[in-house]
Specification:
With 248 residues, the protein is an alpha+beta fold. It contains five helices and twelve strands. The protein is 20% helix and 32% strand.
Length: 248
């Protein structure tokens, strides 16, 4: 069931232990020095009002999406759930898949491709290092080309490592910047959004120990940027996710 808060944040799933939301692009996951209201702030306010809680409601942030990125996020409602979700992430058991439109036409096919680089952060940007230097971090992702045409590609992406701006930097490094991501070389500005979306999230419930899977359709920006995107990508994306799980 999907609820909509007074801040127009979609809540995909909610119980006493976790909240799964669909973050719009342009909103911070967590507050920063700008002082702008974040998704974390909105959820705290939502829980406080809905359950009439005194003081500040507890919401545990266990992972983040960049401000310009949209899609699925899970938050904890208790410290126990937060700890266990964090273990799911650090162990690699939590499954997160992203979908992206890139400004480069790649050949579509059934294969998953592996991309490995050494990434280094300088100020507020991630760069590919030509060698393994002192501050660089080994970074690996996998991508599958779902569609291509008119100089663009639609990719399904799975991270093996979780570096800041990793997908954006690595795709730009192969000459395929994310559509709208002018910071990493896109020729088009899409305002507060880029064509990178957290489309699938799968994990074990931190208390009930049951597997949970969630899917979020790409937002309208994807359709405007690449007209080869079909009405419903979910069956194709889920097939590709299954193929990743059983890859050699």
């Amino acid at each position: 069931m999907i609820y909509s808060t007074d801040t127009n944040i979609k809540i995909i799933y909610e119980d006493n232990h976790i909240i799964v939301t669909d973050k719009p692009a342009g909103i911070l996951s967590q507050g920063d020095i700008s002082g702008q209201t974040s998704l974390l702030d909105m959820l705290k306010n939502y829980v406080k009002l809905k359950y009439n809680k005194p003081g500040e409601a507890f919401i545990g942030l266990v992972h983040r999406l960049d401000r310009h990125v949209s899609g699925l996020m899970v938050f904890a409602r208790t410290s126990k759930a937060a700890s266990r979700l964090h273990q799911e992430i650090t162990s690699g058991r939590m499954e997160k898949f992203y979908i992206a439109v890139t400004e480069m036409e790649l050949n579509a096919g059934t294969d998953w491709h592996r991309l490995e680089n050494n990434l280094v952060r300088e100020k507020d940007k991630t760069f590919i290092s030509v060698k393994d230097c002192k501050n660089s971090q080994r970074s690996v992702l996998y991508y599958n080309v779902l569609k291509c045409g008119k100089g663009k590609s639609l990719l399904l992406v799975k991270l093996e490592t979780g570096r800041k701006h990793q997908i954006r930097a690595q795709l730009a490094g192969m000459g395929a910047p994310v559509y709208g991501d002018t910071r990493y070389g896109s020729s088009i500005s899409a305002g507060k959004a880029i064509c990178l979306h957290s489309v699938f999230l799968g994990f074990m419930h931190p208390v009930k120990k049951t597997p949970l899977e969630f899917y979020s359709p790409p937002p309208e920006l994807f359709r405007r940027s690449a007209d080869f995107i079909p009405e419903d990508l979910q069956p194709e994306i889920m097939e590709k996710i299954r193929s990743f799980r059983i890859r050699p």
